[in-house]
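Re: beginner question about structure tokens

> Can someone show what the tokenized structure looks like for a real chain? I only ever see the sequence side.

Sure, here's an example I had lying around. Input first:
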Amino acid sequence: MALLHRILERIQSDHLDAVGLTVTVHDKRHDEAPSVLAAIGVGAEIVEAQLAGIGGPVPDAIAYQVPVLSPDLWTDDRWPQLTLASMNDRAPQHESTWEQVHGVAAVPGVWADDATVVICCTLSQPAGAATVASLINYEQLISAALITTAAENASAIADIITVLQSRGAIEQAKGALMGLVRCDADHAWRILRRASQEFNVKLRELAVALLEHISGAPAEQPDTGTPITPDERTQQAARLMWAALSEPPLPQ
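And the corresponding structure tokens:
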């Protein structure tokens, strides 16, 4: 985990007011609970408290697969149990640091069909859109680091490379949905992920099938690695999804 720690240090150099940074992983494929993989400052303590059931930006980022921003964490009514008092009770040794906490940003990344990695930054000043944008820029670097940590596991490397290769198809599919539904990237991602779950097909294969359905031609894929080949069930899911979204709205 030394490489992940180095990346967090690099993020910290961009945010000198950061009092905590974490990389959290949630892998549903193995029925694992979310866990902190690497942390700096009080990052581990505050994220572990959120994962213990009191809620917060990280659990919401995992659940909804969108960046979560809080300008002032202790006064955020979305998580009434996550308070200055509750953190002082859980980790009184960091009482002086908890008093400094203001903003928090949590950014999820595509890891696999049923797995998520979340980068979280806790600040001593309000967090904003620039904080989220900065963490988004580090998401691919975190993914590359995870490939390195899996170097002793050949099957893990294959899975990770496949996920990275599917990024292009997923982004293109999101762009197509944004144009069709006239929505932002976050909403397009939720549509794609929900369809993957409802049709019980892999998200990356659904993205490729959707592109092939729209274009009527095989989707472009990287020359390296095994091409993503959607089966007939996934192709049918893509056709049904696109047809449903293309339906004109009913008259009022």
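Each token stands for a local structural state, so reading them left to right follows the chain. The chain has a mean pLDDT of 84.
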